[in-house]
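Input sequence (99 aa), recorded before submission:
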Amino acid sequence: MILGTINYTQAQLIQILNQPASGNGLISLAHQLIAAKLDIGTGADASAVQSAVSSADILIGTLIVPPVGNGLLSPGVTSTLTNQLDNYNMGVTGPGHCP
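Predicted structure, token format:
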């Protein structure tokens, strides 16, 4: 899966998902972006979140998400996108929560 411009393996994605955010907005954003991309990859309608996904990838750019790398973004910079993706992942926006 690609986050920003970096391609991560399944094992690396699992490491990222297991990494506590600990004040790093990049990690929080990556958690939500991974979940959204998995939802979309399994057929969920992406129309409500596609702009946020694209914006998140642009914001992440060439940063490498911990613990794979040492990228860092302020939570203040990522919070809007993180919340949009979280709302999609939780079914608040988009196709709704899975039954």
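Checked by second reader. The radius of gyration is 12 Å.
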